[in-house]
Amino acid sequence: MKTALVCGAGGFIGSHLVKFLKNKGFWVRGVDRKMPEFSPTEADEFLVLDLRDCDNCKKALALDSGKPFDEVYQLAADMGGMGFIKNAECEIMHNSILINVNMISEAAMMGVSRYFFSSSVCVYRDMQPGESMIDETGAYPAFPDNEYGWEKLYSERMLQAFSRKYGMIARIARFQNCYGPDSAWEGGREKAPAALSRKVAQIEDGGDVEIWGDGLAERNFIYVDDLVRAVYMLMHSDLEGAVNIGTLENVTVRQLLQYTAEAAGKKVGFKSIDGPVGVASRNFSIGRITSLGWQPEYSLREGMKKTYAWVREQLIKAGQEVK
Ligand code: NAD
């Protein structure tokens, strides 16, 4: 049986990836500083460890058999939506870099054969609406919009350096915004799809939802099941270097709000308020990942129906008012 280690298995994408790998027949160890919040883990073994600490990375990577893991998926990060990225830049740069520096070096020295790193399209510069598509090479010359992007770019490079020296196969995905059930939906780390779902569930039909800025920033969202499938295909491919994982369905935040309202069966307007808006636009090629035969299966409309229903259920479970 092949063995896989999923770091960040208590989080959103990591918990979905654990399920996916179990269905593929792997023996899976999940590691995180917390257990999954929304449903029990499906991992064969789950270790609660702080991966900023090098000794904990060694523990995470050590198997009783003495053999290295066949596959390591590194998704642990100090992570959140745009508000968190703007307000917690020191934590992001300090904590995520320690996790990646320690995990990459320990995995390489322990002889792991395949290592996956979850990078982000935040490594790219800001783009303007209407700008033509850029591919993975467009990350250089580097000018990420925020510190989260700089941390990801450095970690990509560190992984590639250790891969060259130790022969560990490195696979790097740059994720677009990922959404779906089991993601943070309140508390400050939630992303736009979950935050809008919560706001729409809590207002009357015909009400106005507050959004940061004018709502004309363009974004691209990928449903978590599609993303996890792409991660697995990338890990088992021979694609070197970074690979964008997303869809080509670019929408404004206003459009995302309308899809959310549609999922709720409500008509809603919006009210602009001050807040961190982030980049003006995103338009990235997905040619490398689709060259493997991967295609997204969920449209944003379909994905938002599932996400809205899940967030609404969480509000009810938490005893909060829904309308
Ligand atoms: P998440 O916050 O739900 O999961 C990250 C997990 O890492 C959390 O469970 C957290 O507890 C864990 N973690 C943080 N610090 C840790 C530490 N010191 N030790 C052990 N575990 C620690 O985030 P996610 O959305 O599942 O993102 C997974 C990965 O994908 C991250 O690397 C993130 O940067 C990347 N990514 C996500 C998106 C997205 O839209 N969700 C987009 C681009 C990139």
- Element order: H for helix, E for strand: EHEEHEHHEHEEHEEHEEHEHH
Distance between the termini: 49 Å
Could you tell me the radius of gyration in angstroms? 19 Å
Number of strands: 12
- Tally of domains: 2
Number of helices: 10
CATH topology (fold) name of the largest domain: Rossmann fold
Structural class: alpha/beta
Work out the helicity level.
25-40%
What is the percentage of strand-forming residues?
Answer: 15-25%
What is the 3D form?
Answer: globular
Low-pLDDT regions = none
Strand order of the largest sheet: 3-2-1-4-5-6-10
Please write the CATH class name of the largest domain. Alpha Beta
Mean pLDDT: 96
Largest sheet composition:
7 strands, parallel
Query: How is the quaternary structure best described?
Result: single chain
The CATH homologous superfamily of the largest domain is named NAD(P)-binding Rossmann-like Domain
Tags for this entry?
323 residues; Rossmann fold; 10 helices; 38% helix; globular; binds nicotinamide-adenine-dinucleotide
Summarize this, please?
The chain has 323 residues and is of the alpha/beta class.
Describe the structure.
The chain has 323 residues and is of the alpha/beta class. It has helices at residues 12-23, 54-61, 82-87, 89-109, 147-166, 192-202, 224-235, 253-264, 287-290, 300-317; strands spanning 3-7, 27-32, 45-48, 71-74, 114-120, 169-175, 177-179, 208-212, 218-223, 242-245, 250-252, 269-273. Helix content is 38%, strand content 18%. It is globular.
